[in-house]
Design a protein that fits this description.
Blueprint (H helix, E strand, L loop, with lengths): L22 E4 L5 E6 L5 E8 L11 H7 L10 H10 L3 E6 L4 E8 L3 H13 L5 H18 L3 H14 L11 H6 L2 H13 L2 E8 L3 H11 L21 E6 L5 E9 L8 H13 L4 H9 L6 E7 L4 E10 L3 H17 L4 H17 L4 H13 L8 H8 L3 H11 L6 E6 L2
Parallel strand pairs: 2-6, 7-11
Antiparallel strand pairs: 1-2, 3-5, 3-6, 4-5, 8-10, 8-11, 9-10
């Protein structure tokens, strides 16, 4: 059957959204396994989520080094031997330290799970944090830091969070050269014991797998003396320094700009509608900030706004790099757009275009088992209902211009703003 290329494909509105069912199982030693079967290829992803994020560190850089060093050698294997053993099976694992947790992830074919899982568990439970590899990581981190500290965008981001959350807040944790140099093996071993071995929150298995794989995971995990984290948390007091902050960097051609404030988190009833408002304002290429400041005025190559939630706080901000000679014009246009979206209702056509884009992009974000697992983690971490994603469609369709104008006045005002600019005077 031939296709007439002159006729555009039929356009369909997204009217509903399905998030696949998942199971909550339990290992013999009492840890939850969230099991999400999806995909057609026999590939699996196994996530271990630990209470070992930035909010748990007592020394700056502890969380990041503890995560990155898990692959650097165990009691029985060197880093090279561990990497080659996993590579033999076409498998690999990665770790990441987040503000609120740390995640260790194994990717492998199901048929190789019985060989790969013991290696993975050995890495995350028996890491010895060898001094030689730690020194290499410290030198690499210091070199990367020295490069970053010459970048306006890095300095702007760093000082924005420090002014928004406070110098000592974990969400404003940025390492100095001295912090990196002071990192030592003993503190990492202690952090690993307290927040990995004694901090396993839950497991998450995604992909195309059989009951046999679940049994293998249960058998091996149950043999390890993991302990669940305690409910006690570090005190996270927010001490904001609002207002206009300028950091001079005389060798700059461009000025890095970030304007923002504290905002609402995922569990707030207004959060999803505020996400929609942010999309229209600066969250995609067709947003108001992009149309005005990039396309119409030509003041920047890119500008965007972000609603960024954490477990203990949230922020909304606008970010851009603007040529120094156009900086004041750019700042004026940003505040002008903030005023316009507060004072005038969004036209119906603009609203519908953004809604259709948002639904389409969200649907794409659910494509594939591992993308679904990322979405599932949000449900788990924020204790959201299973209907959270399917309800997203009705939330968007039931949000009108008056609702968004009300939200704009509530959350996009100029009070308590942190305006951070790094550049040449």
């Amino acid at each position: 059957m031939s296709i007439n290329r002159k006729i555009a494909p039929e356009f369909h509105l997204i009217e509903s959204l399905h998030f696949p069912d998942y199971e909550i199982l339990q290992t013999k030693n009492g840890f939850r396994i969230y099991s999400l079967r999806a995909g057609s290829q026999p590939v699996i992803r196994l996530d271990f989520i630990f209470d070992a994020g930035l909010i748990r560190q007592l020394k700056i850089a502890e969380s990041a080094f503890a995560a990155s060093m898990l692959s650097e050698g165990t009691k029985n294997r060197s880093a090279l031997n561990l990497a080659e053993s996993l590579d033999y099976y076409g498998s690999y694992f990665q770790t990441r330290s987040n503000p609120d947790d740390a995640v260790a992830t194994l990717y492998c074919l199901e048929k190789h799970l019985e060989n790969c899982l013991p290696l993975f568990l050995e890495a995350i439970t028996e890491s010895v944090f060898p001094e030689k590899e730690l020194d290499i990581q410290k030198k690499n981190s210091i070199q990367k830091l020295l490069v970053n500290e010459k970048k306006n965008s890095y300095l702007c981001r760093k000082h924005y969070y420090k002014n928004l959350f406070g110098e000592k807040h974990p969400y404003a944790s940025f390492s100095s050269k001295e912090d990196l140099e002071k990192t030592n093996r003993d503190s990492l071993v202690s952090f690993h014991q307290n927040h990995y071995k004694n901090g396993l929150k839950y497991l998450m298995l995604s992909g195309n797998y059989s009951e046999k794989a679940l049994g293998q995971i249960d058998d091996l995990v149950s043999k390890i003396d993991f302990i669940a984290p305690s409910d006690t948390r570090n005190h996270l007091e927010i001490v904001s320094q609002t207002g206009k902050i300028f950091i001079e960097k005389n060798d700059s051609v461009q000025s890095a700009i970030r304007i923002g404030k504290l905002s609402i988190g995922r569990t707030h009833e207004d959060f999803r509608r505020l996400q929609f408002l942010n999309l229209i304002f600066g969250g995609y290429f067709g947003s108001r900030l992009m149309k005005n400041i990039r396309e119409d005025k030509g003041l920047t190559y890119g500008i965007y706004s972000v609603l960024e939630p954490y477990k203990e706080a949230a922020t909304w901000y606008i970010d851009s790099d603007i040529n120094t000679k156009n900086r004041e014009s750019g700042l004026a246009e940003i505040y002008k757009e903030m005023a316009v979206i507060r004072e005038h209702k969004i036209p119906k056509t603009e609203l519908e275009t953004a809604r259709n884009y948002y639904l389409g992009s969200f649907l794409r974000s659910l494509d594939g088992p591992f993308s679904l697992a990322d979405r599932l983690k949000i449900l788990i971490d924020y204790q959201l209902p299973n209907s959270y994603y399917p309800d997203f469609v009705s939330v968007l369709y039931n949000t009108n211009s008056s609702d968004l104008q009300e939200l704009a006045n509530k959350y996009l005002g100029e009070e308590n703003i942190v305006e951070l600019v790094v550049g040449k005077k």
